[in-house]
Design goal:
Molybdopterin biosynthesis moea protein, domain 2; 4 domains; 416 residues; 16% helix; alpha/beta; binds adenosine monophosphate; Molybdenum Cofactor Biosythetic Enzyme, Chain A; elongated; binds magnesium ion; Molybdopterin biosynthesis moeA protein, domain 3; five-stranded mixed beta sheet
Length: 416
Amino acid sequence: MTTFQTPRAGERMLSVEEAQERVLAEVIILGSEPVAFTDALGRVLREDVVATYDIPQGDNTAMDGYAVRAEDIANSPVRLEVIEDLPAGTVATKRVSKGTAIRIMTGALIPDGADTVAHVEITDAGSEFVTVQKALKRGTNVRARGEDMHKGDVVLQAGTPVGAAEIGVLASVQKSVVRVGRRPIIAIISTGDEIVDVDQPRPPGKVVNSNSYSLASMVREAGAIPRMIGIVPDSLEATTAAIESALESDFIISSGGVSVGAYDYVKDALDKLDAETKFWQIAMKPGKPVVLSRLRERLFFGLPGNPVSCMVSFLLFIGPSIRKAMGQRINLFPPTVEARVTAPLKSRGDRRNYLRVRVVARSGTLMAEPMPSQGSGVSTSMVQANGLAVVEAGVTAVDAGQIVPVVLFDRVFSEI
Ligand code: AMP
Ligand code: MG
């Protein structure tokens, strides 16, 4: 009979923060590649983007109306001659001089001579002549040249993740090709003699592989590319071979087999491959056994097999690593907010506990609704969860109504 594995000498449990720091310190920033700006969504910029011209290109009108001289309308109501009509995108050929106005549409450049736009609502909307009913301060309704971007401004910094607003700015500065971080390739291995795949028969004692798929989805959500290695039986040889076959990837993630069970071979396989194991225990629940190893320039993350432990350790350690590897410089970790729990929380008190909650904004206050079942094997406790309520070691109960820190890993729910 194989015996249980025993903790190795000199190994101590790290705090989550220590582990996060050590993980990030190991992450190497990967190379970059040029992509069409329309394909940059979800990627990380690897070059500063500079405005090549002023936007807007000249002073222009924020309103539909009449370009006038403020002094001409000082004693309103006043009647002015309309000398030209200026749709957006056209440039005036005439100059606004005393007693005249040019009809102008939002976005059009302010004609020479004019300094103010009388919006149509304060006029009689005339075409040959217009009556302006109200005096306006000079510059009213005029948007200044370069108000949005000035030529030479760095409008997007290297390290910025690209969302819709960034794509819009890239379009404005006509940056049709932009350099972004390469998407990391992440190998995913599921270990366990009991694990069968989705399309396989499921005799008693077997468990259907869900971790490979939830992990692959989290990898995609983080902007990386999953590479499915499949299911590996609990043997040293098979585990070693699977890890070796994954070495072409940037990171390797395994699920299962990192605990102290008699058939947990991930750590031994890493030793056999001469990996440099950095740590394998973190003072948290779920997910105490989490292995971080460096293996021939690759980072190896050995996650526990329980589906919730797997996802929680991904959120706390691997997601931030992927973002850093792609070149992101800030906002690597999910933020912690304070929320009021709507039901009591229980914890063993021996380690920091991350309890799954659904954070809802109720009349402007963040409320955390705990999932009814909190077992680390209860994969449905992650369904619709967007937060992890943090109950520190030493605390065994939190009453309903108390405020707790919550690691927010998805958008807050709206009340309706
Ligand atoms: P382990 O960390 O290998 O001791 O596994 C812990 C628990 O997670 C066991 O109940 C396993 O059956 C379960 N488990 C391991 N791998 C997977 C997987 N790929 N999909 C779903 N459950 C798993
Ligand atoms: Mg196992």
